[in-house]
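Tip: read the tokens left to right.
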């Protein structure tokens, strides 16, 4: 057997042994790239809020960061168009039952470019295999989303 194959087999055995260790009995939750459907609420900073139902949010996770894709959203009653907005490079951490989201000073993407006037701050949230919820400041506007698969 070739030395490279031996090394590969040995590495696989170590990995499998580590994964089957009884100390690693905490349930691992897989958050796949499916859409969560829910409610978006934006505080208008004038004593009113704007609510959009049936908003689709897709979370794509890559190791320790995620992209949050908000599909066809509007943020105010007077906003005539709906747009897709992506929040890139959101730090994630594994927590019991899913992932936590957190982030500050993240420039979202919309309409083909940076949307810096609506920089994301104070982002906190949780994603599980069945649900998502998060709050954040989108520019000067407080925003919250809660959805399920």
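Filled-in amino acids:
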């Amino acid at each position: 057997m070739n030395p490279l194959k031996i090394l590969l087999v040995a590495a696989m055995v170590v990995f499998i042994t580590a994964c089957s260790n009884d100390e690693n009995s905490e349930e691992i939750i897989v958050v796949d790239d499916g859409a969560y459907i829910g409610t978006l609420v934006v505080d208008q900073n004038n004593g009113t809020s704007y609510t959009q139902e049936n908003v689709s949010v897709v979370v794509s996770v890559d190791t320790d960061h995620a992209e949050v894709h908000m599909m066809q959203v509007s943020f105010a009653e007077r906003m005539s168009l709906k747009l897709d907005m992506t929040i890139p490079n959101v730090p994630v951490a594994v927590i019991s039952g899913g992932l936590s989201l957190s982030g500050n000073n993240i420039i979202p993407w919309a309409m083909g470019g940076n949307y810096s006037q609506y920089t994301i701050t104070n982002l906190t949230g949780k994603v599980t295999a069945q649900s998502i919820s998060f709050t954040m400041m989108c520019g000067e506007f407080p925003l919250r989303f809660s959805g399920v698969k």
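Residues 2-28 have pLDDT under 50 and may be disordered. Strands lie at 35-43, 49-62, 65-73, 83-95, 98-103, 109-110, 113-114, 120-127, 131-138, 141-148.
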